[in-house]
Structures are given as structure tokens and as C-alpha cells.
Amino acid sequence: MTTDRSAPQAQAYPLQWPSGFPRWKQGRVSGSFKTNFETALRNVKKSLELFAKDSGKKIEFPVLSSNIDFNPLTINTGNRPADPGVAVWFAWDGLQVCIPVDRYDTPAANLQAIHHIIEARRVELRHGTLALVRATFSGFQALPAPKGKHWRDILQVGGNPTRAVVEANYKRLAQDYHPDRAGGSIEKMSELNAARDAAIAEIG
User: Fold this and answer.
1) Nearest CA to 76 among 132, 37, 125?
2) Which of 189, 113, 95, 91 shows the shortest CA–CA distance to 147?
3) Spatial distance between the Cα atoms of 129 and 72, rounded to a whole number of angstroms
4) Does the N-terminal peptide bond of residue 14 adopt cis geometry, omega within 30 degrees of 0?
5) CA 104, CA 31: separation in Å to the nearest integer?
6) Number of other CB atoms surrounding residue 79 within 10 Å
7) What does pLDDT average to over the chain?
8) Which of 17, 33, 44, 150 has a CA that sits 20 to 30 A from residue 98's CA?
9) What is the pLDDT of residue 1?
């Protein structure tokens, strides 16, 4: 775990959704974006570079988090995973920022939407002040995973677990971590409870 409190605690794969940020509950649509994933990624990178230049503040520790597995030594999930959500994490002006989008049915469309969100912040810079943009970005401020760990690690689940799997693992681990049990503690139980809350907030 990094000691820099401004550095987002994010992983590229699988998707790490910001704690407490609700997932899209309605039906996903294709959107009107005419772009593929590679082009959308280039657009986001360029937008971040220009935003940093416009604001005079560095973009640090950028991470693209999604359910696309880019590891060439594993079976790639392709550009249409079951969960197409995308989250772009970075640090800016002392803020831990995460811009998550999952309303569209492909990672490419969700990533292109993030490009437009960043471009909207550039418009705010041109017509407003740095303080205004900072206030806007505070709405995207990301909470790190409990004690630097992701809820998947704490709950001992991988990939994209269902709520039933999360609940089953929570109950199993709670029996071991309960303060009344040998080896259990208030701290371990609190961490487990926080991980369950983060998991439910992400997967619904």
C-alpha cells in the first residue's frame, strides 16, 4: 500500500468500482458513440493530458479499471464482458478521483462517455475557475478500499461474484472473525463489514 494518500488504490482488472457509488440499474443501451475501445482509450488519455495542461495540475497514478483482461498469458475476455463498466482512477490536485460509467453496453461506449465527462471539466476551466472544477471533481472523489485492500480480497472472491456468493463468503468469514471467536477481533470484523458494504454497493 502506498503511503501517498492522494494515490488511488485501484486495480486494472477486474473492474474496481468506487465504494459507495451506485451501479446503473436500468437497461443498458448502445449509445450513439462511433468509436472502438482503442480510440476511446486514446481520447481519454488525450483528455487527461489536456486537462492537466489547462489546470496547471498534474494527473498522477492514472488507472483504467475494467473487466477486460489485457494479460496476454490468460484467456482475454474480449471487448464485450458481461459487466461492461469502466472506471478511470487518478490523483489530481490532492484529490483521489474516480470517474465510473456503466450505463452503456460496451466498455468502448462507457470509456468514450468518460472522455466527454473529462472534456466537460475542461469547459468548466475555460469558463469558470479552478475552485469550481475542484468542487465538481469532489463529487467524483474516490474512497480507497478498506485498509488498502479490495473487497474481493477481504471476502475471498474473484472475478465478478454474485450477491449470493458475497453473502455466503461474508457469513463464513464472519464466523471466524467475530470478536467472540479465537483469532477474531473487532478490527477484522469491521474490515469484513466494510468489504461487504462496498461489494453490495458495487454489484447491487
Assistant:
1) 37
2) 189
3) 44
4) yes
5) 6
6) 14
7) 84
8) 33
9) 29
